[in-house]
Design a protein that fits this description.
The chain crosses the membrane at residues 6-25. With 226 residues, the chain is mainly α. It is built from 12 helices and no strands. Helix content is 79%, strand content 0%. The relative contact order is 0.05.
Length: 226
């Protein structure tokens, strides 16, 4: 075998190594992280994120975003707050900023922290796609500010995902029920009980066993609806 052929073979082998080794390492690290997170082995999970193998396989944003997942699973509010601030201040792409904004928004929405949710909404305005941002605005208005500005918008969304007649399978019950809940909730702010119950009654069926069902029944009790 002449030297030229040998050099070509060496280049091919090195190229394959450079391609395959990172792919294999990334897969191994990911599997390890997933097992640790699923088994609630949080200390081991965070240690793995800081290993050289993980740093070689994943960019800083991806590692810190996965760390956030651990804090969220632990419900460690103090660490979650710190992690959102860290992610927001990193040099990241617009797509990554959109991901941080939406995740942060829904976290603070669930926690009922109006200023923090509003801050994430403002942060994500230039990065979140138009449809997603509109949905975030609607939920913020209804759930946090207790406004009734989006009844027609919610009805349009409902009409877009269900014809109002066909039977709902289990996959569609929750999204349909959620929109019904948001419409009924707005009517409850207006003390329009008849229209409220028009949407709360089917929502109770579609959202049975969820926190939404409890909230609907609480509202009905407060408005003295049997």
């Amino acid at each position: 075998m002449d030297s030229k052929t040998m050099n070509v073979m060496i280049i091919i082998v090195l190229t394959l190594v450079l391609i395959l080794v990172p792919m294999i390492m990334k897969k191994v690290v990911w599997k390890k992280l997933l097992v640790q997170l699923n088994n609630e082995q949080y200390d081991e999970f965070y240690k793995t994120l800081d290993t050289g193998a993980c740093k070689f396989s994943y960019q800083a944003f991806n590692r810190e975003y996965m760390r956030l997942s651990g804090y969220l699973a632990q419900r460690n509010d103090a660490k979650i707050e710190e992690q959102f601030e860290l992610l927001k201040n990193m040099r990241i792409s617009n797509k990554q900023k959109a991901s941080v904004a939406t995740r942060g928004f829904y976290y603070y929405l669930e926690k009922g922290k109006i200023k923090k949710a509003e801050g994430m909404l403002s942060y994500g305005k230039s990065y979140v796609d138009e449809k997603t941002f509109k949905n975030m605005q609607i939920q913020f208005s209804i759930l946090m500010k207790k406004e009734a500005k989006y009844i027609d918008d919610c009805k349009n969304i409902l009409n877009g995902i269900w014809d109002g007649k066909s039977e709902l399978d289990n996959n569609k019950k929750f999204p349909v029920g959620t929109i019904q809940y948001l419409i009924g909730l707005q009517y409850s702010y207006l003390k329009d009980v008849d229209h409220m119950m028009e949407y709360f009654n089917p929502a109770l069926e579609n959202l049975a066993g969820t926190p939404y069902e409890e909230d609907i029944r609480r509202i009905m009790t407060n408005l003295h609806v049997g």
